[in-house]
Amino acid sequence: MNIMVIVAHPNLEISRANRAFMLEMSNHTNIDVRNLYQEYPNWNIDADKEQQLLLNYDRIILQFPLYWYSCPPLLKKWFDDVFTYGWAFGPEGEYLKGKEFIIATTTGGPENCYQAGGDNWFTISEFLKPIQRTVTKCNGIYLPAFVTYSAASQGNDAYLSQEAKRYVEHIQASSGLLVH
Ligand SMILES: Cc1cc2nc3c(=O)[nH]c(=O)nc-3n(C[C@H](O)[C@H](O)[C@H](O)COP(=O)(O)O)c2cc1C
Questions:
Q1: Beta-strand relationship, 3-7 and 31-35
Q2: Closest protein CA for atom 30 of ligand 1
Q3: 90 alpha carbon to ligand 1 midpoint, in Å?
Q4: Ligand 1 centroid – CA 3 distance (Å)
Q5: pTM of the predicted protein model
Q6: Domain residues of the chain, as ranges?
Q7: Rounded distance, CA 171 to CA 153, Å?
Q8: Which of 59, 104, 119, 143 would staple 113 via disulfide (CB 3.0–4.6 Å)?
């Protein structure tokens, strides 16, 4: 299975968690990692190129730090520019049909904040629903997200390298193992 990882981090220079994930992935030749903010410093996303790239992969990973309960804005623009009517959805818009998508996100908040009655009230699955529906609207297959909680506070090197290994296992696992 060939895998494309789109990393959308506005500030990778000071990142620890997402950078640890990128370092771990560099050991795996079947995973192609792209850095969205580096590729498009002016935010002029090349939709044709992105669509062509999407066609080449079976599984697409959307990796980002959770910013205000959502993805950073360049990734939102990527959806807006690339998932177009007549290509991703609508009449003859079937190019994403059957492709697998996985969100991989890191949070500052601990896991127990992300539950009913917790500090953030909702689960991560609930916060990620707009992306889930974007994928399924385009006939893609939405697989369970990978989440590293407490990435900012507890994010010491040992924890983050352990999470990076768990991440790489998750994104390479067969869909049957991810969905029960
Ligand atoms: C602008 C901004 C918004 C953030 N919003 C959230 C949030 O909504 N929930 C949360 O748990 N953490 C939030 N954080 C913390 C980041 O998610 C956390 O620092 C990041 O995932 C750590 O990964 P990194 O080391 O790769 O940057 C936010 C951080 C910034 C800078």
A1: parallel
A2: 67
A3: 34
A4: 25
A5: 0.97
A6: 3-178
A7: 24
A8: 119
- For helices 157-172 and 17-25, the axis angle rounded to 10 degrees is 50
Counting ligand 1 atoms within 8 A of each CB, the residue from 18, 19, 66 with the most, and so the one to mutate, is: 66
Segment 101-136, tens digit of pLDDT: 999 999 999 999 999 999 999 999 999 999 999 999
CA of 87 to the centre of ligand 1 (A): 32
Q: Which fold has domain 3-178?
A: Rossmann fold (3.40.50)
SS3 state at 174: coil
Which residues have CB under 6 Å of ligand 1? 9, 15-18, 65-69, 106-109, 151-152
- pLDDT > 80? residue 58: yes
Tally Cβ neighbours within 10 Å of residue 131.
21
* Structure confidence by residue, pLDDT tens digits, 2-38: 999 999 999 999 999 999 999 999 999 999 999 999 9
Maximal CA-CA distance, the chain: 49
The predicted structure's pLDDT at residue 152? 87
